[in-house]
Hints:
Helix content is about 70%, strand content about 0%. By secondary structure, it is an all-alpha fold. It has helices at about 15-80, 100-120, 125-155, 170-180, 185-190, 200-215.
Amino acid sequence: MFSDFNIQLTTFDWNGVSGITNILMVVLTGLLLYGLKQGSNNIKESALSRDADILRWAMSEMDKLKPDIRLITDAHKKHNYCNCPNAHQKIHECNWDIEELAAAQRVSITMQRIGYMALHNLISRNHFTNLWGPMYLSTWYALEAWVKHKRLDLDEPLSIKEGAYSRMYLEQFAIYCEEMLPLELVNNERERFNLPMLTQNDRKSYQKLVDKLGARKEKLDI
C-alpha cells in the first residue's frame, strides 16, 4: 500500500519555507513589541494613578490641617511662642495656650511626613509646591520657634545644618519652597510674619543647604 509513497527532499522548495519562517518571525516580533508597548503604557498609567492618589492624600491632609494652621499662625501674629531675646534658650516663658500647643504638635507631625514624601518625590514636588507651598511656608514661619525649642528639649542643635533631626523634613521642605517659589511670593509670606526679605543670592545659599542635606546620612526621627 505504501510502497509507492516516496518523499523527495531534493525537489522540496526550502526557499519557500525560509520565506514563511521570516514572515512568522516578523509577525512574532511585531506582537512582542506591541506587548512591550502595552506593558509600558500600563506601568505609566499605574504610576500616574499612584502619584495622583498620593497627591490627593496629601491635599486631603492639608485640608484637614487648615483649622490648626490658622490657629497657630494667628497665635504667632498675636504673640511669639517664646520671649527669648536673641538666641533661643532652654528655659523660657511659653506664650501659647494648651490648644495652640496641641495644634502645633498635630500640624508639625503631619507636615513632617508630607515634607519627607515630597523631598523624596513620593509626592510630586512641583504639584505640591505649586498648590501648598505658600501655606507650607507660612506654617513653618509660625512653627519655627516651637520646633527649635523642641530641639533644645531633646538636646539637639537648633539648626538642621548643624545636625538637628527633630522635624528635619518640615524645615527642609520649607527651605525647598523658599528656593522654588517666586521670590515675590516668598517675600510676601515673610512680610506677613515680620521677617527680613530674601534676595536671589540668599536663595542660592538655600539651594546649597538643600544639596548638602540631601547627601547627609539620614537618621530616623522617632
